[in-house]
Amino acid sequence: MSNVTSGAPSTALLTDKYELTMVQAAMESGTAERASVFEVFARRLPEGRRYGVVAGTGRVLEGLERFRFTDADLEYLRSDGAYSAQLLDWLADYKFSGDIFGYAEGEAYFPNSPILIVESTFAEACLLETFILSVLNHDSAVASAASRMSGAAGGRPLIEMGSRRTHEEAAVAAARSAVISGFGSTSNLEAGRRYGLDVVGTAAHSFTLLHDSEREAFEAQVKAFGPSTTLLVDTYDVEQGVRTAVDVAGPSLGAVRLDSGDLLDQARWVRALLDDLGNRDTRIVVTSDLDEYAIAALRAAPVDAYGVGTSLVTGSGAPTAGMVYKLVSRADSQGVPVSVAKASKDKVSVGGRKYALRRLNEDGVATAEVIGIGEPPASDSNDRVLLKQFMSAGKLAPGFVGASAVVDAAAHHEAVMAELPASVTKLQRGEPAIPTEFENS
After folding, report:
1. Cα(297)–Cα(281) distance, integer angstroms
2. Which of 136, 128, 172, 166 has its CA nearest to residue 11?
3. Per-residue pLDDT reduced to its tens digit, 302-314
4. To pair with 117 at 20 to 30 A between CA atoms, which of 274, 322, 346, 395?
């Protein structure tokens, strides 16, 4: 019988049927318990992108703790009529008992980087394919877009505010991924509760339209939250909105938000107007369907912060990271490890359990992603080992889940970006910032 904690939803059915059919067939052939190694990697980056960012590993690990088949799950599978009693009995006792290694969240990745390595029996590891890929493909796509936006912002604060443009749970995951890649806050309350993120938010146009005048709306907001609040000034006329905001809140007005029009031109004259009115410390926050290119264009404007929604939560044109989950090694009938790989046209994989290094030059700048089979060779260079162990014999290592893991991942991402060559920040289409080199393959 399953022992999933009451109230914590099982993740076991967040999968595809073919994983169960493979396990059942492997039981028939006697291969289900063969020691196996699966690897998550992307054959290529989204077209024109120079790097990707790993995110979602912490959510995968959280989900594996709940990857147990409940009585209700088993009853549903039993009603299908396609599954054997042997398989259903095995699923009832399922709990992942293998090892998991991978790139730390916030790490950059490149074509064929072994982002996650799962070592267990074929049956145990096979079941995890869909769940792992659904999390990593979504979260890494958002984190990769967020990193490009963060680079384009040049150190100016970024606010994640895309909850209304995606699935409700995807919104929480997107907020987490954005903060890993340089965003400072989110509008999503559940993301704040679940992962300890800073949550911000003021008012929408509907709040202004609710009142008989813009002034009354501003007075109500300032009375509720103090003059340091952010007032949305473009419901009617922007110039009059700014003047009214300053008149109501005074020199302590925290910020004005611009959400429409030519933001570059508007920010310039709004800054001049605020200064003329004595509000030199009042910040300007811009929103309105921003992406990394719009953010880069606005670097020439006196903008203090950006709020980003739709483009961020949809990966800014690359809604999936294109990662795959492939068997790269398995034991033969005598228990001897055998490297295996696909040879399909345009879908070739490299067999064998991998190691991964970031090759650095004497200045500490990355020059290559080095991947090999087995253990990395002894070296006098300052190559950085990329794979960390997340789980051992089914037990989670400390430090990779929860709020503290997000803080650590954000710090790691900042360090990684400083290590990569300067070309990584270019938004123009280009090849990966560093090449992927194979050793001992």
Report:
1. 23
2. 128
3. 999 999 999 999 9
4. 346
